[in-house]
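Hello Y.,

Per our agreement to keep a running log of every chain we model this quarter, I'm adding this entry. I've kept the format consistent with earlier entries: sequence first, then predicted structure.
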Amino acid sequence: MNYSEFLINIEEVGYSRQGKSCAFCNIGEWTIGFIGLSGKFQSNGSKAYVVCARPTEFEFMTSPNKQFSTEPMEYPLKLTLESFTEKLEYESNLLRFDYDRIGTESDWSDLFKLIANDLPIALEKLKVTGLITQITKSSELGYIEKVWLGLKNA
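Predicted structure for the entry above:
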């Protein structure tokens, strides 16, 4: 499955595309996003991306009324194929996060399996309360973390 086929397949399992390189889906209490990175991340013949997840109940910092955000910093969980484990752990990496790059004609089936199967199962196990517990254990909450927790006036 190349990149074009990947985009078609994620739409078939319920993801909504935004633009040419992003797709999002609400699954249970979670929003999962495939966010293609642009600008300095662009390279001919490959696509840089990050997979993100957030509880649907969390507010956005920039536009509280929108359903999805294409900004990775709006998501507490930022993942790549390499960083994903079934036991999700929150890391306060708001501006500096890992991303991955795959050739557009390479095999995207592992990434499809991650966002269509493995990540939703791991999020179901984590539960929103588990993520909130992990975030509150952070040594110092940043502004966006306070927004997520409903403490933005704190």
